Amino acid sequence: MIKALLLKLKESFISVLPIAVIVLILSFTPLAPLNATERITFAICAVLLILGIGLFNLGADLAMTPMGGHVGTGLTKSKKVVVLISVCFVMGVLITVAEPDLSVLASQVSEVMNNMVLIITVGVGVGIFLILSILKIVFHKSLSMLLMFFYMMLFAICAILIECGKNDFLSISFDSGGVTTGPITVPFIMALGFGIATTVGGRDANENSFGLIALCSIGPIIAVMILALCSKGEISQDTLNALASYDTVEESLKSIGHALLRNVKNVGVALALIVAFFLILQFTVLKLPRQKLAQIGIGIAYTFVGLVIFLVAVEVGFMPIGYKLGTEIASYSKAILAVFGFVIGFVVVLAEPAVHVLNKQVEQVTGGGVKKIEMMLALSIAVGISLCLSIIRIIFHFSLLYYLIPGYLISLGLSFFVPRIYTAIAFDSGGVASGPLTSSFILPLIVGSCVAVNGGPDSILTDAFGVVAMVAMTPLITIQALGFKAIMSAKVRNKIAMKRILSADDEQIIYFK
Q1: Residues 6+ apart with CB under 8 A from 357
Q2: pLDDT higher for 512 or 154?
Q3: 20 to 30 A from 88, CA-CA: which of 318, 394, 419, 512?
Q4: How far is 429 from 418, CA to CA, in rounded Å?
């Protein structure tokens, strides 16, 4: 166990180091000067982030992934579809309520939407679409066709929202879909899908195990769009004041204490609900041996401690620093801000816990056909591009739909030209890339940039929000492009091999008598 933990800490150290180094270097330049307290706070929180990601990743391996797999396998073997979809709906709601990055987003839009109402609405959206995802696996339905249908439905509702004069809420709606698939949701749902797909069987079992994250990202967008019809308000200076950094070490330490107590309670309640429901399934359906339960129990403990530390680090160190970086660099130079957006987007995805869970499972399922390093590079480039485009949108002040509609048309179009497993992986990657750091570091950075560029909080709803949706969209294109490259490379290799065979001399042929 100690060896596994050290390995996870090493991985998290490598992931967090680039973003920490970039921020600390910038803090000594005129671009984004930070005071001594801010540097110390950020450095402490970077160390806490490494510890939190390491503990969480180990917990996900020991608990969340096995729980999802056992639930999927056990319920599918019972051959009771009604029980399967009922349990999946409840689990979908519970794991969404427990999702930390959803809470972070909800806290930043509390002036326009009630926190708990937003979280429950998103949870119901995930639960309903998780049912649809399970039915897709059981009845072997095409992911591409389902995505095409539901995205058409989504943009139809989007048109209704615009017609009702609620276009200010479009960005929040799309961001809700992006933040849903975070460190708790991804390991559980992906393992759930894998367990159901392998139990149902069929030649497309590996392909069917992906795509759940993709579909579960659509439900919250539609649900929040419907909720937006009854919402009103705008972001004020009070929300921005909450993102301010600390002037003294005492204030910083005090905020760490408050954040620790708050997150211990929130994470504890959320995980307790999941564990309680899992225990009900254990005694009624699963009946796992004690050894497995003990492993899951240890994993839950690691997950709890890791998530609490992670959330404290991003809330105290990364959100305020992200906001200040955005305001300072935007005030200095808009061109440099766009370049910085690409660089920080490129490295920030490395620190997303759920990305490592996805990359590992992709390499396993594809038998090494898609390497972890290839996936990580494609995701990093995609997120870097999405941040750069988001900053351009702030500067020139145009609708998020000018990006999303062409982007989704391209990604859905590509799905007809690449193997279906690449489409499933791509749409899952989009949801996974937009994790806790996106909502707690990237979003405040973009909010700060928006305030500096536009001179106040008036356009935050329309211009700043939507960056999470961009982070979720761009991987759809880059990962499918990776799949297209793999197909073309395979065809070229086959042609070369065939030419060599056809051009071989007869003397090289060995005849057996």
Answers
A1: 57, 60, 65, 186, 187, 190, 432
A2: 154
A3: 419
A4: 16
The radius of gyration of the chain from alpha carbons, rounded to an integer in Å, stands at: 23
Tens-place pLDDT, residues 286-343: 888 999 999 999 999 999 999 899 889 988 888 899 999 999 999 999 999 999 999 9
In what helix (H) or strand (E) does residue 200 lie, and over which residues does it extend? helix 185-200
Structure tokens at 485: 């490259």
b/e code 187-224 from CB counts within 10 Å (16+ = b): bbbbbbbbbbbbbbeeebbbbbbbbbbbbbbbbbbbbb
d(CA 179, CA 185): 10
Distance CA 396, CA 246 (A): 32
At residue 387, what is the residue type?
Answer: L
DSSP letter at 301? H
Sign of the CA dihedral with 488 first, then 492, 494, and 498 last: positive
Long-range contacts of 150-157 (CB under 8 A, 24+ apart): 150/215, 150/218, 150/222, 151/218, 151/408, 151/412, 153/222, 154/218, 154/221, 154/222, 154/225, 155/405, 157/222, 157/225, 157/226
405 and 509 Cβ atoms separated by less than 8 Å: no
Phi-psi label, residue 466: left if phi above 0, alpha if psi -120 to 50, beta otherwise: left
Give per-residue pLDDT as tens, 149-184: 999 999 999 988 888 888 888 888 998 888 877 777
